């Protein structure tokens, strides 16, 4: 039987591989990116109440009006964006569905798509399945930044879409305004659309504030902004995504969405609408808690001799094995780590399609103190 080669040739995702090994070795799983906290109780109670007392039939395809209005108000407050709830906002069943729909709606076979690696593992197969030709920009530690020369190598008259993840998983960096403005100039020059995966927009540290590409000069009519309630509220299983774009883009994005999932559970939408309206204290407190966990785990890793890279956002912190002179790459190190020391991590080389960086290992620190402390105890002998 012939299958589609894009998917037939894909390996099992590294997250599944490492999580399986974590189960087999009874390891602390710091590989897959989810918190071991249940999420805000008041938001969860709103979802439960909406199931019992609310509407459980098909909601509107574009999303509940109350949620679209809440998204508009939320982004006006936090990112100074002015959006129209009726024509510029759509709700999807997670950010990955939003990304899938965007690739299907915007790319024609042969169009070139600029991708920054390391990258979320769904990007490349989605681009290829839509018929796009990937043009890769290689980012490297410790700062994971691009420059004008790097962009000039990949942009051309065939460039249709730029797919940008900011803050960047797995690198944990938050792109400064000057980098976004540089990318915007290339998008304008080559008439390209920026599809911006901004799911980590609230998970930023050290007083940083997320800047949306949608707010950069020249990008209002050529940017698709994608967000995630799962990341904002640490409810990763809910799969409620947000899409914001100008009406000329949203018109086509909505047509792709209607033939993928069509809609999203209404009780979860109601709960997210409530959650987006929470006062600033919730969002600031969430960041402070995550930053404290980051600092706790980073200090522990450093005390054990691991070279820790900066983490400005996301749930993740990286170590660069290169200065240690170990006779193994990141994948071999992670396999040894889970088998011999019972801690699961992710080799960052898995986020590259070519010219891999093979020395960086990613840990998820969005865990309870006891989980992180147990992991550090097990890591104590790794470098001895």
From TrEMBL:
Known cofactor(s): pyridoxal 5'-phosphate
This protein's record includes keyword Transferase: yes
Annotated CDD domains: AAT_like
A GO cellular component annotation in the UniProt record: cytoplasm
Domain Aminotransferase class I/classII large: residue ranges: 26-379
Catalytic activity: L-aspartate + 2-oxoglutarate = oxaloacetate + L-glutamate
InterPro entries (UniProt xref): Aminotransferase_I/II_large, Kynurenine-oxoglutarate_AT, PyrdxlP-dep_Trfase, PyrdxlP-dep_Trfase_major, PyrdxlP-dep_Trfase_small
Gene3D superfamilies, A to Z: Aspartate Aminotransferase, domain 1 (3.90.1150.10), Type I PLP-dependent aspartate aminotransferase-like (Major domain) (3.40.640.10)
Source organism, top-level taxon: Bacteria
UniProt keyword annotation of Transferase present: yes
Family: Belongs to the class-I pyridoxal-phosphate-dependent aminotransferase family.
Entries under PANTHER family matching the protein: FI04487P
Protein name, entry field: aspartate transaminase
UniProt organism field: Variibacter gotjawalensis
